[in-house]
Amino acid sequence: MTAEESPYDVRLAATPDDLTAAQALRYQVFVAELGGDGPLVDHAAGLERDAFDPYFDHLLLVDRRIDPASHAHVIGAYRVLPSDRRAAAGRFYSETEFDLTPLLASGRKLLELGRSCVHADHRGGTAMFHLWNGLAEYVLDRGIEILFGAASFHGTDIAALAQPLSYLFHTHLAPPEMRVRALPPDRQDMDLIPKDRLDRRAAMAATPALIKAYLRLGGFVGDGAWIDREFNTTDVCLVMDTGTMSARHREFYIRKAGP
Hints:
Helix 4 links the parallel strand 5 and strand 6 (146-154). This protein has 259 residues and is α+β, with helices and mostly antiparallel strands. The longest helix is centred in the N-terminal third of the chain and has 18 residues, at 16-33. It has a single domain (8-257), classed as Aminopeptidase. The protein has helices at 16-33, 86-89, 101-104, 127-142, 162-172, 200-205, 209-216, 247-254, and strands at 8-12, 57-63, 74-82, 98-99, 110-118, 146-154, 181-182, 187-188, 220-221, 225-228, 233-241.
């Protein structure tokens, strides 16, 4: 299928209805599917929202075959906050979970990523690729140097997550200049299993696809996980320097810039 034949469009939310559609999708994924909750979640209207939404850009994956009036046409979403908007928002969303001092002190252009989701009916196909293409264009247009954000394992049973957390710690820990740290009291150390006792296959099987995608692009994880009982997740902070991606994966971004 060519780009012209694809049923998908990727664009930024431009209206209140666009944001409502994104929040409706987030409710389906994070609340209905995964059991999350929060102080501003609107169960009656089926909307997952929080106080940070007004400050973020919301990247939407739209299925043109679905009537926009239903709000079901948004089948993928990402919300992103460039560092030049952090002051207006008061802080980055993930600063409640992680000490971002190394990134904030770097003086580089940062982009916080979060609330990434795709409707269940569109997973496993090209939907996420289209959403990532849109993110690549956003990154290039704004000269972003470091991407970061919390990524989640479902559930808070650390024993069940010991293999993947330990694997991330032993093989993908961020270098010191990018090593954010999970904050107490909900911090969880990730060095749970010695490196020589890791089961790599089991660890990768238990790692969400989004986290594996970031690792393939050259991403790292910060020091420690954070237990988010409200959202029923165990979060790690992913960090990626767009300047040190492997040449093959960096081309995914650079080719969007054109000649």
